[in-house]
Amino acid sequence: MPLCKDCRGRGYYPKSTVLCYPDRCNLSDEYLFQTKIYLKNIKKMAIKHTLKLHRTYGTQGTNGTLYYNNQKICHTIELPDRKNLRRLSCIPAGTYRLKKQQFSKNGEQIAITNVLGHEAILFHAANDAQRELQGCIAPVTTLKGEGIGAESLKALNKLKALVYSLWDMGDEVFLQIR
Fold it and tell me: Where are the alpha helices (DSSP H) in the chain?
């Protein structure tokens, strides 16, 4: 951090974001004002994290595996691919931003935003895509068949712990579906 000549000459080196000690420095008020504006405008850049969902499409359902930093988080189940029909199909492949959202039916969940032709798409617990899903994605611990899994709540809690911890750091989280 640069210091004025006066402070450098006296050997003062502040350990904070302040350029000079106000009580020891004779910097101009304008310089100090500009410095405060500069420091105020420096913001922590949000890091962008991407979860990657690798899918296998079937006639009865879509199965997938969700990864973060090449580490498996859980498996997923979804409806079969029916050409993006609302409430009848899995969502299209692409990259989507995730955000925390409150839903009346499922409480606070991880929402998948800006899905073309769909609304209120989220991650929530379900073990049978045909019976329990309408376009959403259900994390599951194990896969039992096309669109069928087990221990969904356990997998959802694991996913939430990861995503919420990234959000708590002020970072952004995206979902990339292939």
Answer: 5-10, 29-41, 129-132, 152-168
Percentage above 90 pLDDT, the chain: 65
Distance between CA atoms of residues 36 and 42, nearest Å:
10
Give pTM, 2 decimals.
0.75
CA dist list (Å): 126 to 78, 106, 120, 130, 144: 9, 11, 16, 10, 13
Strands 62-68 and 71-78 turn out to be: antiparallel
CA distance 146 to 129: 9
In this structure, the dihedral spanned by the alpha carbons of residues 122, 127, 130 and 134, taken in order and rounded to 10 degrees, is: -10
pLDDT digits (tens, 9 = 90+) for 97-150: 999 998 787 678 999 999 988 888 999 999 999 999 999 999 999 999 999 999
Asked if pLDDT for residue 89 goes beyond 60, the answer is yes
Domain locations in the chain as residue ranges: 5-41, 48-177
Q: CA-based angle 92:166:67, to the nearest 5?
A: 45
For residues 150-166, give the mean pLDDT. Answer: 96
Q: Domain 48-177 falls in which CATH fold?
A: L,D-transpeptidase catalytic domain-like (2.40.440)
